[in-house]
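Hi there,

I know you've been waiting on this one. I reran it after we fixed the sequence typo, so this is the corrected version. Both the input and the resulting structure follow.
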Amino acid sequence: MQVKQAKPTLWDAAEEAQAHQAGRKSLCSGLLGDPLTDGGLSQLGWAMRELQVSKASEKRERWHREHTGLRLQREEHRHRSLLAGILQDTVNLAAQNRELRQVAD
């Protein structure tokens, strides 16, 4: 009995995206130079769907970047507010300490 071993497939998303983009460019340039046949129309439809998927992916990535940026700005604002509160508490404690020393002297 022969045992087959499974090997992991290394998948590079960036490489696949570049290959898709190159395929779309090649297809579009080929379609623009040739008269449209049934096969050409089918390929054009495929290219249009691929382009829509690509654009939707870009929109999701842009939304994610913007959302992440806003979240980081909110966190930074919260941290700055906390630091301002700590600084104010420190100033108040220093003033109280100075008053206590004056009373003790």
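Quick highlight: Helices lie at 13-33, 38-104.

Best,
R. S.
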